[in-house]
Amino acid sequence: MSDADSSLPPEVSRYLASLTSAAGDDTPVRDVRFVSLDCETTGTDAERDRIITIGAIAVTGGEILLEDQFESLLHISHNTSAVVVHGITAEEAAREGVSEDEALRGFLDYLGNGVIVGHHIGFDVEVIQHACQRQFGIDLTNRWIDTMEVTLHLEDAGVFEAMAAATGHTVSPFRDFSLDGLCRQFHIDPHDRHTATGDAFITAQIFLKLLKLSDHQGRTTLGQLAERYVDPRS
Q1: Looking at residue 81, which CATH number applies to its domain?
Q2: For the chain, how big is the Rg over CA atoms in Å?
Q3: Residue 102 lies in a domain
Q4: Burial, 76: exposed, middle or buried (Cβ in 10 Å; 0-12, 13-18, 19+)?
């Protein structure tokens, strides 16, 4: 380990060491530890805005592991317009939260070499990436999968149209690819929506449905499941 590495907190060092055994393209999906992730933030600028809450829960072997989850509330300096979405005030965060440094140390130690999953997860990953750079000078290099992209792959393959036909519909009624739309499609109760832990759990439930459909389509390895989506119409 280099001198720079040895100066890192032990949680961060463990995180970096775990990445050497991360799952590869050929790893069967059933053997991957996925981490369904959601962050509530002070705004939509990944570089300038700050994390308010982190919520995460693991999915492995086709199951949600309720005993394997993470939650953290961070200090924030002031209230922003985003408070009307997540409902967390600066006063509450100051009273019950932790520093960004402490939250990230706990999260990275929890995440390890897991594959991050989320809906439009690129933003969350970018926010955490900037935070990791600020606090530790490291990158968040975990592989990530966007449930939106998985859904679009399945839509292009005609999966949802086939599901509609099986229930007596002649055309697919599924055109809402939002998290709420996916909840309706898969009959999932959006309990605790717009909280980090609630959205992470909702996304984990949706992800299990997508995993089963992807398996039927032959997407059985991590590389196949994580394939980036390119709109064929563009």
Answers
A1: 3.30.420.10
A2: 18
A3: yes
A4: buried
Total of domains in the chain: 1
Cα–Cα dist 164/180, whole Å:
18
Helix then strand count (H, E) for the chain reads 11, 5
39 is a domain residue: yes
**pTM, rounded to two decimals:** 0.88
d(Cα 100, Cα 103) in Å, to the nearest integer?
A: 5
Strand 34-41, strand 51-60: pairing: antiparallel
Measure the CA–CA gap between 149 and 153, rounded to whole angstroms: 6
Going by C-beta distance under 8 Å and a sequence separation of 6 or more, which residues neighbour residue 183? 189, 190, 202, 206
Q: pLDDT, tens digit, for every residue of 35-53?
A: 999 999 888 899 988 898 9
Cα 88 to Cα 38: distance, rounded to the nearest angstrom: 15
**How far does CA 99 lie from the centroid of its chain?**
21
Q: 3-class DSSP state for residue 53?
A: strand
Q: Note whether residue 43 is domain-resident.
A: yes
Domain annotation covers residue 129:
yes
Measured CA to CA, the distance from residue 196 to residue 118 in angstroms comes to 11
Q: The domain containing residue 205 runs over which residues?
A: 3-225
pLDDT at residue 126 greater than cutoff 60? yes
Which tokens hold the place of 194?
Answer: 């717009």
CA atoms within 13 A on the CB side of 184: 9
